[in-house]
């Protein structure tokens, strides 16, 4: 089974459909990202979750759960995200419902109209609620598919604050799946915690990558949640032959390291 953030018509479903073809598994909707991680971990299943967006940055819940749960990343895909205002009548709208990431990606547009906002579990859930409530004062930010599925009008198209909007989705699981297509690249993700807070501590980590000519594609810090001002670092890098050698050297300078996997990146036509 391949779990995704539902209901039907969410952007995660779009990514889910692609992964579902790639690993030949049926899709099953979940109502939260938490529920996806739970199902993947308990049922030895797969899940597709948003990991970062080109406007709003990290999906922080996904990042935190990658550290908490015993799951690995097995694939990655970037999806074009075009948000739409959906509902009944634009002039009557007072409150906009959507996923917090979508509300943030359309922050300027919402502010220009002076609407209030309400965060819900996904863009498709927002459309579903607006359709059920049949209240003209409500609008949703959602996909065109969601508008069609839930019988709402598309009142404005492509409303995100920056046009070239993309979200990166990852495939999570416990065991390496078989893919029936060729990737465009391979990547590795690790999470590290520095040994001590001293001058050059992060430099000594980054030096290991620089000396081996490894291209980092992301470095991001999240609070360690142990003490204010202490962090864990999420590092993505392009595939490298001698990972064992690299990890051995890194281990000398880190208090903790979690390997999230070396996985294929797919570039599927959308
Ligand atoms: O709400 C949805 O449709 C989702 O699939 C979630 C999500 C996200 O969490 O980033 C996915 C893509 C967009 O960036 C907006 C929302």
TrEMBL record:
NCBIfam families: PRK11898.1. This is prephenate dehydratase. One of its GO terms (cellular component) is cytoplasm. Residues 1-174 form the Prephenate dehydratase domain. Pathway: Amino-acid biosynthesis; L-phenylalanine biosynthesis; phenylpyruvate from prephenate: step 1/1. InterPro entries: ACT-like_dom_sf (IPR045865), ACT_dom (IPR002912), Preph_deHydtase (IPR001086), Preph_deHydtase_CS (IPR018528). The keyword Amino-acid biosynthesis applies. One of its GO terms (biological process) is L-phenylalanine biosynthetic process. Its EC number is 4.2.1.51. Keywords: Amino-acid biosynthesis, Aromatic amino acid biosynthesis, Lyase, Phenylalanine biosynthesis. Residues 190-264 form the ACT domain. One of its GO terms (molecular function) is prephenate dehydratase activity. Gene3D superfamilies: 3.30.70.260, Periplasmic binding protein-like II. The keyword Lyase applies. It catalyses: prephenate + H(+) = 3-phenylpyruvate + CO2 + H2O. CDD domains: ACT_CM-PDT, PBP2_Sa-PDT_like.
